[in-house]
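Write out the 3D structure for:
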Amino acid sequence: MRMATFKPGHWAILGGVVAVALLPLLVTGRYNTNVLLLAGAWAIAALGLTVVLGYAGQISLAQASFFGIGAYAIGLGTVHYGLNWWLAFVLGLVVAVTGGIILGATTLRLGGHYLAMVTIGFQIIFTLVMTNWSALSGGPDGITRIPRPPFFVPLNTAQRYAWFALAATLLVALAVHALRDSRLGRSMRAVRENEIAAEALGVDTVRVKITAFAISAVLGAAGGSIYASGFLYIAPDTFDFGTSVQFLAMVLVGGRESVAGSVLGAGLLTFLPEWLRELKKIYLVVYGSIIVLVIVFMPEGLWGFVTLLSRSLVRPTPIPPARGALPMGGGRPAGEPVLVIENLGKYFGGLKAVDGVSFTVRQGEVHALIGPNGSGKTTILNVISGLYAPSFGEITFLGRSVGGQRASRIARCGMTRTFQNLRLFRELTVWENVLIGAQRAGGDETAIRERAASAIEFMSLTILAHNRARNLPYGTQKRVEIARALAGVPELLLLDEPAAGLTQSEKQDLVEIVQQLHARGLTMLLVEHDMSLVSQLSHHITVINFGRKIAEGAPERVLAEPAVGEAYLGNREAARA
């Protein structure tokens, strides 16, 4: 049946078009039409919150302030300064995006309740300024006689303006839906899921966060502009902290990552008070209880529940076929230095985690970095890949000094990695995880998808492409992480204990994968505890103990050195004791 090939998003779009056409006709009376208009304006602002909270995972309780900026730009611009409505609208967006960038930039290192508190402060400051700066805003009395925008059809009736507002809501919803699966949208969701992994894959997390706040602010202001001209009057108490909480509730009730869910949540929480008003004194209790019950028992929101029910009717879109093997090796002569580490050190206060380590990784080799637990191996990888800044020493990658640079910049130079403790984007599918990895190598969307498909095929994950990463067995998750790193077509792949936690058969599969990658010319730096695996795979070994290099060379010679055995097992006297 045709439904099986029709995406849920397409049904939502079709439903949106029908709603825009019919709702203003079905809702009768000026009061109800105004409620419909309010739902449209609030939905636009809620969609902005979907971007910053649902996509990027940055909680904001300041959305009503941006809603107010858009409203006051229209009120002040048209009534006080006589500006054209559309010019005032654009000025409002400019002010809002500036505020969004400032808010995003000042909260880069914050998360959780600290981030929420800063956005609450931003919201409170806006409300206080608009309430007390009467010369600018009109104070508590607000601004009246706000005009409606000039349009090719006069918007001189409530019904016509409701059509205009709902059409704007639909356009914004389509744009936010398109953003979700774009390169920027995937990067936002990567930041939400695991910021460290996103940075290590070349995602500029700073730019992504600020962009999310800026887009959210613009959409908040757009909703406020439509609101102001719909009701012809604005006052500061419309844009207070309570309204920001209401926007948050709309997104959570509808589904924080869902465009259709945010629109549904906005509509429901706008009309629900009207439907419950006859309950008089207890309606707020019922209203609040409904919100709490939905959030607690439907954590993915109402639209998430609808999507869950529809999964049996909808086939996921197949991933594109892989077009050839992933390019590897970079075309450099075998044996040429790829990564040169000179006198590298990393101190944490008085702890010398890495102390004067030097080694070179050459083109086409599997270079193993081994040592007992706590010797500093993972710290070295974290410094090399930019997650930690070195305390001293030099890191040269492909002839360029990269020591102290951000992880995203080093990744974009051609270095990708896996992690000792898995850092998958757990709520995303295998396909989405690998797509984010494929973005590192650039190119258009077609090239990104082809690289992702090739990496998934190489790691034998095609049948699992539409499964969420968190639902997969541990060994399969390890393969997904390697596929994600390979999709970026790295010049150097860092593997941090890839065999940890694997069964014997999975370890053998890993050996075959690494051997195939070596045969294709990929250079790898391997941290591993399994000496059998190290001896099978490595061409050169560097041994670390207590942050210092104690041995280096060919596997047969290094593994036979007494100092290496003592580092792992202790000397005989210590063993007897």
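The chain has three domains: 13-239, 330-414+492-571, 422-489.
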